[in-house]
Design brief:
The chain is of the alpha+beta class. The chain has eight helices and 18 strands. It folds into two domains: 165 residues, Aminotransferase class 4, branched-chain amino acid transferase, N-terminal domain (D-amino Acid Aminotransferase, Chain A, domain 1, 2-Layer Sandwich); 168 residues, D-amino Acid Aminotransferase, Chain A, domain 2. The strands form two sheets. Strands 1, 2, 3, 4, 5, 6, 7, 8 and 18 form a nine-stranded mixed sheet that branches. Strands 9, 10, 11, 12, 13, 14, 15, 16 and 17 form a nine-stranded mixed sheet that branches.
Amino acid sequence: MADAPMIDFAHLPHPAPVPSATRDQALADPGFGSLFTDHMVTIAFDPEHGWHDAKLCPRAPIPLDPAAAVLHYAQEIFEGMKAYRWEDETVALFRPLENARRLNASARRMAMPELPEELFMESLRLLIETDRDWMPTAEGSSLYLRPFMFATEAFLGVRPAREYLYCLIASPVGSYFKSGVKPVDVWVSRDHTRAAPGGTGAAKTGGNYAASLNPLAVGVENGCQQTVFLDAIEKKWVEELSGMNLFFVFKDGSAITPPLTGTILPGITRDSLIQMLREEGLQVREEPYSIDQWHADAEKGDLVENFACGTAAVVTPIGSVNGPDGKFVIGDGGTGQLTQKLRDQLLGIQMGTAPDPHGWVVKLD
């Protein structure tokens, strides 16, 4: 963690917040990622002042020089997390310090300054407290939080920038997939890879997601909701989906998830589910798993459940795997009992309706 003294946040009043009736109508069906709250947080950085000029202010466009380094050299990182409103009106976050630490790990990889964890946490508290009325109450809904940082220095030349802006915005959301908890169909990309050894695959940076968009579009054209990426060298080892980690559950009581070798994102939900699966008595192995073995195990019936996971989609069952080589179905194509149980348990912890034995939930005062 980067050490720095806590700085004061300036609070800038909103001249025209969304009327409550308009807000409440929008919250009845927020969708995912297209509705935003009234405010945002910004903190600037430069070598002379360090982190400074912290503001809680009305959400608005960000002035940016056309030569800003982010527009030319893609120095940008972000996080995704959720705030949950419990039945007793408690507001809770799920493992937020892990998001702070992953943001800083991404910053180190992208040659960007680290944000002190206490500043990260204070930005969350201030925005949630200010825009608390934007938190949806429908089942399965939450307040999605998007912390991000990008290079603002205006120059043309390949080097790390000297000036940055950290921002935090919030979006009331419902289910990530319109189908809700129904299984999704995935498309195997044979022609594109998401990341290579030594690259930025383990950093949560926009370039990784940009690389996934073309193959994701191919998958959608073939009736699938997500794309599976294989390794960049042999193009045989399963890595992750466009934005989610993968788990494979077998009838012998074991489970596999691809290992963290620097080419996939170290998911916080992934880490939580590894612990939860082991508590269910499963032997969880973090080891390579090939696309051919995936097909063979599904055909033989040895692979009984398959799911993806992430902050946005929580735990999402996979119904079928499709690609240029054909299609195979996982189990009966439905949602497995263990998949459903894990999803319910994880949501229960996040929503305060199930025990939290690991102390993962952080309540906001």
